[in-house]
Amino acid sequence: MKKILITGGAGFIGSHVVRRFVNKYPEYQIYNLDALTYAGNLENIKDIENKPNYNFIKGDIVDEVFINELFSIHNFEGVLHLAAESHVDRSIEDPLAFVKTNVIGTMNLLNAAKKQWKDNFDGKRFYHISTDEVYGSLGNEGLFTETTAYDPNSPYSASKASSDHFVRAYGETYGLPYVLTNCSNNYGSYHFPEKLIPLFINNIINNKPLPVYGDGNYTRDWLFVEDHAIAIDLVFHEGKNHETYNIGGFNEWKNIDLVKLLCQIMDEKLGREKGKSEELITYVKDRPGHDLRYAIDASKINKELGWKPSVTFEEGLERTINWYLNNEEWLKNVTSGSYKDYYKKQYS
Ligand code: NAD
């Protein structure tokens, strides 16, 4: 049985990837390695915890000794690396935490894989899941392609850019078989409510202000998380060695338009008077170094691997909102405790 290591599988995207791999590939033994930081939650993958091909390991990728030990016990044939510090606002507060996990953590995994696979790279694959934010900001025109120069502006994107570079360098220098993807903003179930869509759904439910940065004209390309998981599955199995693929939703929205759309849908769902939730919109001081626009050209993965989003934005949002409305307990649990302190510091 092939042993596959997935890091960060208790987080938002990782939980969808782990679920897909465990359910779809009974012939793989899946090892989910996660430190269970504030963003990691075993509730996100409760439905698969008893499957015979699923294994959870609690551990920190920054701990080099632990990672080396793990690789000496298990002969992993593939690594899908998603564990990361992932929130831009937090990276502005504490950049070093992002260097530790995103750069040093990735290095530890690269070194362990290189050491384990040194005699035989056949059938091995190191897959780094990354972000479109490494490309910096677009103006009103154009799209990010795989050859767009890296130009990161936040400590988060700088740390992801750095880890991308190390993955490539290990491919070029040591021949490590890798694939890399840079994806646009994801949305869907199990998304920690510090990020825009779940934050606003939660605040609308609770009649709390909707904090919109600057003038609300920042533009993002949104992709349903299950479509990202499908793309990751495809790239892991069929992507060309030493290649990068951009993944995106062909779905650009200005933040303010997206917030208004969420307000409209939520008014209907909650049986509120039309326009009621929009009254909660509050413009707050802009984030420093805020990128104006991200938009992905996903034509390479479309042409080479036949991937395109399987759900429309309307359908994805409908499923997402319904999920949060049906899982208020999950929302309550993740927004208790330290979340409250973070929220107060960020938005008051
Ligand atoms: P997330 O913050 O929801 O989850 C990250 C997971 O990594 C958590 O379970 C956390 O416990 C774990 N983790 C953090 N530090 C760790 C450490 N030192 N050791 C082991 N585990 C650790 O993040 P996400 O939104 O699911 O993103 C997953 C990956 O996808 C990240 O690499 C991110 O850069 C990338 N990405 C995210 C998006 C997006 O829109 N969310 C878009 C493109 C790429």
Instruction: Name the structural class.
Output: alpha/beta
Put simply, the count of helices is 12
Distance between the termini: 52 Å
Taking Cα atoms only, what radius of gyration do you get, to the nearest Å? Answer: 20 Å
Which of globular, elongated, flat, extended, rod-shaped describes the shape? globular
Mean of pLDDT: 96
Q: Helix-strand pattern, N to C?
A: EHEEHEHHEHEEHEEHEEHEHHHH
CATH superfamily of one domain: NAD(P)-binding Rossmann-like Domain
**Fraction of residues in helix:** 40-55%
Work out the strand percent: 15-25%
**Strand line-up in the sheet with most strands:** 3-2-1-4-5-6-10
Number of strands: 12
Write the layout of secondary structure elements.
Blueprint: E1 2-7, H1 12-24, E2 28-34, E3 54-58, H2 64-73, E4 78-81, H3 88-93, H4 95-117, E5 125-131, H5 155-174, E6 178-183, E7 185-187, H6 196-205, E8 210-213, E9 219-224, H7 225-238, E10 243-247, E11 252-254, H8 255-270, E12 281-284, H9 299-305, H10 313-326, H11 328-334, H12 338-347
Residues 7-8, 10-14, 34-37, 39-40, 60-62, 82-86, 101, 105, 129-131, 160, 183, 185-186, 192 line the site of nicotinamide-adenine-dinucleotide.
GO molecular function, one term: dTDP-glucose 4,6-dehydratase activity
Catalytic activity: dTDP-alpha-D-glucose = dTDP-4-dehydro-6-deoxy-alpha-D-glucose + H2O
Family: Belongs to the NAD(P)-dependent epimerase/dehydratase family. dTDP-glucose dehydratase subfamily.
